[in-house]
Specification:
There is one protein chain. The protein is mainly α. It has 2 domains: about 40-145; about 165-305. It is about 70% helix and about 0% strand. It has 18 helices and no strands. The chain has helices at about 1-45, 50-65, 75-80, 90-105, 110-115, 120-130, 135-145, 155, 160-170, 175-190, 195-200, 205-210, 215-230, 235-240, 250-255, 260-265, 270-285, 295-314. α16 packs antiparallel against α17. The radius of gyration is 26 Å and the shape is elongated. The termini are far apart.
Length: about 325
Amino acid sequence: MKREKILIGAGAIYLAYHAIRSQFKASSKCLLDDELNGLISKLDRLNNISDKADILGQISASLKSRPPGSVPLRPEQIQTISRSLLDSQTEVKTKCYHALQSVLHFAIDPDEGTAVLQFTRLLLSLFSDTEAIEEQLACLTLLVSLSSHRDTHPDLIRSLSSYCSLLHTQPPWSREVRLVTQLLFRLSENRSLLDTLLNCRVDRWWASVLHPSSPRETLLYCLTLLTNLSRCEPPGGAKAQQYNEASMYTLLYSRPTPLLQALRPLAWHSDPRVKAAARYMLSRLPLPGYPAPPGSWAWVENGSTARQHRRAEA
């Protein structure tokens, strides 16, 4: 009987502690809501550029100071933050990207993330138009976060040429290249987009990116992108001729493919994941001296050449 009383007493203490802790959390959350409400209301009234950038920075910092999923924001509040995307000043737009990034990561309700998704097309337009590196990086980081939502993929794939242009102009160790390869990798996980990705122009960027000195993350994103594309059954016949000669399709399925030269050093990379990904890709490629996989670009071209030779001999 005494033991039961002790147990009941311990249970009551635990319940009281839990109730006090929950009340403390709720009061902290209310305080944070008041703080955010005040900042967002102030942002809605501001016209001064430097003040607006400062408030957006405070909103972002306030969101980041809390655990993920602990900050409720109303759709109209997200709209107020997003209006700063239309500002003409680079500093304001950059801080706005950071604030929206924080909304995506720290929002309490999935609907808040959805409220950010509706700005995907506007973000793509801004990304294509800007030449300011800091603004471009902030926008690209937000686009990468949005790419985790498949609903955004049809819009994101439309700016493929803009992403690839960064791969041509930026050094392989840059943050821009890492973000673009991450974005392309995310898109390659959507099978409905593989045909579009296979036809994107690669020219020579892959040779500089697929270098042992490139950052490990960039190499892994790029190799996984190639792996996902190589798992797509190569279309033969007339459809194969739709791909341009500088496309990802040609890079993967031409014989001999120049990818072999880039992948062989990576097969001995010091990082085990890079090494494994490179060796897997080598096993997927048509090798010199071996028949090309049926339906591949090389198979179609070789078949056409053989028919021409037979006609000439006849």
